[in-house]
């Protein structure tokens, strides 16, 4: 469904060229859950922003259902690390903000359905500052899904949450994905999160950001953080971040 081919992106920082992305190729199937993992600064956010149409690539193409992505569109929803809800609007108004060109009744129905989906029914009249971090992120997910996008792009969506809320939100996102069957691409620097959520894990290298490996998570046992499958996938992912001579010590520690 989503096809990324030969993508390059450079930035000019103080007159110096920074290669943010190099030769990125990735095909994402409809309904798939892809996680992208890599060091801070490896170009993960840049890649998501290019898919969202918020930034443009220097070289390469991205198509969604064979249509070139040339700018933002309602076929792609986005959730950021900070919820980015508008503080002067209620949760209901925030979720419905991007819904345009449909009648009021239909809009109300869609907003209520999505508040229910993220288990925020009863909080429609609250303002963002009245919600906890986890609840605000649920609202951001509802806002991202309300247009029924082809793909939801999540950029370290739980990065600002405490560890327990984070685990709870990971479960919630899996439930929502199973219910809605929306294609999801989630970026994280947390390897456990990438394994828990992804059907395929895209491992990126540090600058220049390239895809080092795509690791499938085949067995459903791998979703159990205590399983040997989980540990073995974790090793496969970690292996890409360490040099040969460092690996023995790292492998021993995990
Ligand atoms: N708007 C920008 N202008 C200049 N450099 C940028 C810009 N956005 C990102 N970069 C640079 O591109 C690289 C990748 O950034 P980013 O995609 O944010 O990484 P990540 O999300 O993996 O932490 C970094 O070196 C960053 O400094
Ligand atoms: Mg980032």
TrEMBL record:
Keywords: ATP-binding, Nucleotide-binding, Transport. It holds the Pfam family ABC_tran. One of its GO terms (molecular function) is ATP hydrolysis activity. The keyword Plastid does not apply. SUPFAM superfamilies: P-loop containing nucleoside triphosphate hydrolases. InterPro entries: AAA+_ATPase, ABC_transporter-like_ATP-bd, ABC_transporter-like_CS, ABC_transporter_ATP-bind, P-loop_NTPase. Residues 2-231 form the ABC transporter domain. It comes from the Bacteria. CDD domains: ABC_NrtD_SsuB_transporters. Transmembrane segments: none annotated. SMART domains: AAA (SM00382). PANTHER family: ALIPHATIC SULFONATES IMPORT ATP-BINDING PROTEIN SSUB (PTHR42788:SF13), TAURINE IMPORT ATP-BINDING PROTEIN-RELATED (PTHR42788). This is ABC transporter ATP-binding protein. It comes from Anaerotalea alkaliphila.
